[in-house]
Amino acid sequence: MRKVIDFQMKLGATPIEEIKFDLKSRDEIPKLLIGLQHIYITPSLREEVFNILQKMIPEKIDTNNGRPGMDLWKILVLGTLRLNCNWDYDKLKEIADNHKKIREMLGHGTFDNDVYPLQTLKDNIRSLLKSERPSSLTQAIIEIGRINKTLYLLNYVHNEEYRRRI
């Protein structure tokens, strides 16, 4: 049975809404994670995104039986990063296993050494995000990345105090 989000925090985990990002970073990862954090802390938006995700679960999968798959939240985070950063699955696995902020967004605690098997990433992310043409969710994920990058640039251009901090 696949969960949307596992709200049971692990030992040493930072609540997603409390994760702090380096606003001076020019890398795309913090910008994408800030956008995902916004989805997470906005209940109406989060519900809408996960309704779309649940509709995309392949019909042959019985969501009430069997072993649990990855949480939809983890699939969304990792799928967003993979699509917007143009990573292959090997790069995604390396980042998911070792990048501190991404692991925090995935709900891992300080003492959590869980890793993501490559095949698990492929099976879970492909099952929801594959399509001959971009699905509405895939397109939305790509747009979230573009919107966050645009908001960052607009904030930089129009906010003198923000520019001084950077």
Q: Care to describe what's here?
A:
The protein is mostly helical. 59% of the residues lie in helices and 0% in strands. The chain is built from eight helices and no strands. The protein has helices spanning 28-41, 43-55, 72-85, 89-98, 100-105, 118-129, 136-158, 160-165. Helix 1 (28-41) runs antiparallel to helix 3 (72-85) and helix 3 packs across helix 6. The longest helix is centred in the C-terminal third of the chain and has 23 residues, at 136-158. The radius of gyration is 16 Å and the shape is globular. The mean pLDDT is 80.
Mean pLDDT: 80
Count of DSSP H/I helices:
8
Strand content: under 5%
For the record, give the distance between the C-alpha atoms at the N and C termini, rounded to a whole number.
45 Å
Listing every helix as H and every strand as E from the N terminus to the C terminus, the arrangement reads HHHHHHHH
Oligomer kind: single chain
Q: pLDDT below 50 for ≥5 consecutive residues: which ranges?
A: none
- Total number of beta strands: 0
Provide the structure class: mainly alpha
Query: What global shape is seen?
Result: globular
The largest β sheet comes out as:
none
Radius of gyration: 16 Å
Helix content: 55-70%
